[in-house]
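A further point concerns the way the authors explain their paired sequence and structure data. Since the whole study asks how a given chain folds, the encoding of that fold should be made plain. A single example would do more here than another paragraph of explanation. An entry of this sort, consisting of the sequence and the corresponding backbone structure tokens, reads as follows:

_____
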Amino acid sequence: MAQQVMRRHIIPVARKLGITKRIGWHTFRHTYCTLLRSTGAELKTMQELLRHSTIRVTLDTYTQAVTAEKRTAQEAVVALLFPERTRET
């Protein structure tokens, strides 16, 4: 049943949105963990919510680094490569 939902509903919508990476149920766990981290959730809270045995699993496997500094740096590179885009916005 779960795989059927993934194949029939979630993956087609992701493709329409331009998401081409492989998507599975653990994709939602990765996203949830990253969002928790970006809201400033305590590490122990994240570990317990995801029911991981150690904080290492939570941080090394499930959390993506998302920081304002990274976004700013990325935007600066895009501005260098595509100056016409930054003038339009």
Remarks:
- DSSP finds six helices and no strands in the chain.
